[in-house]
Amino acid sequence: MVQTLERAMQIVKLLVSDDSRKSWPISDISGRVGLPLSTTHRLIVTMIDLELVEQVSDTKQYRIGNKWMEIGLRQLEKTELRVVARPVMEVLANEVKESVYLNIPIGIDGILIERIDSPLNVRVTDKLGARGPLNLGAPNKAILAYMEPAKAEAILIKLLENKQQRAAMQTELEEIRRRGYGISYGELTKGTASVAAPLIGFGGKVLGSLGIEIVGERIEPGRLAYLIEHAVKRASEISSRLGG
Fold first, then answer.
1. CA separation for the pair 143, 179 (Å, rounded)
2. Rounded to an integer, what distance in angstroms lies between the CA atom of residue 235 and that of residue 240?
3. What share of the chain is helix, strand, coil (3-state, %, to 5)?
4. How would you write the pLDDT of the chain (244 residues) with one tens digit per residue?
């Protein structure tokens, strides 16, 4: 398995090694990476299936696939999001004296990629990399609510088998869009509440969400209203910096 991966990466590196060459014949690839023609062909076929390599229809030569561009743009987007969001998150955490979170969508889940802890001794502290389904928790639902409808529907079908549950969730997502924020109580962590607003990038694409999580003893209507106001304000600030 490791050897196969190493050989595949040899081919990938070769395909991007010379800017003057738009594509490579398989004989050149085989010779340059030092692999039998049959082995090279088998690896390339697999990478074509994965969209990592593509064949030029006219010449039957090979070039790097568009999947790499997609991967690169996603990584760049995530990196930019964290860089832009962190200083605003620090301001927000200082304003509200609560833990502040940055979530992004990965498949049918939301994943926590940045966190600023509350300065208070009693606080909620989730681990970086923590995942949860997009239909649970204010940060995740704020993301799901602002996704393209067809994409959100496809995710809900995977997460909720019951049509009535999906319909109820759709109603909740519509309410989140109307208000501009989500609220949840103990859906992922018992004894807590969270509020979150979406982070919107260029072209109206939802990139993630900015959330605030508080412990049970501080859950009061007036307090929640205060947190919502600040979360929405700071999420809008981040979105503006990202072209949203």
1. 14
2. 9
3. 50, 20, 25
4. 778 889 989 999 999 888 788 899 999 999 999 999 999 999 999 999 998 999 998 899 999 988 887 776 566 566 688 889 999 999 999 999 999 999 999 889 998 989 998 776 545 566 778 889 999 999 999 999 999 999 999 999 999 988 999 999 999 999 999 999 999 988 877 778 899 999 999 889 999 999 998 876 567 778 889 999 999 999 999 999 888 7
- Report yes or no: 210 and 181 within 8 Å, Cβ to Cβ: no
State how far the Cα of 56 lies from the Cα of 163, in Å rounded to an integer. 44
Contacting residues for 25 by C-beta, under 8 A, at least 6 apart? 59, 60, 61, 62
Going from the C-alpha of 200 to that of each of 19, 45, 94, 106, 145, the distances in angstroms are 35, 38, 23, 16, 12
- Are 173 and 229 in contact, with CB atoms under 8 Å apart? no
Distances (CA, A) of 37 to 58, 63, 174: 21, 17, 56
Judge contact between 209 and 173, C-beta under 8 A: no
- Retrieve residue 157's tokens: 């079908």
pTM (2 d.p.): 0.67
CB 30 within 8 A of CB 37: yes
Dihedral of alpha carbons 72, 78, 81, 87, sign:
negative
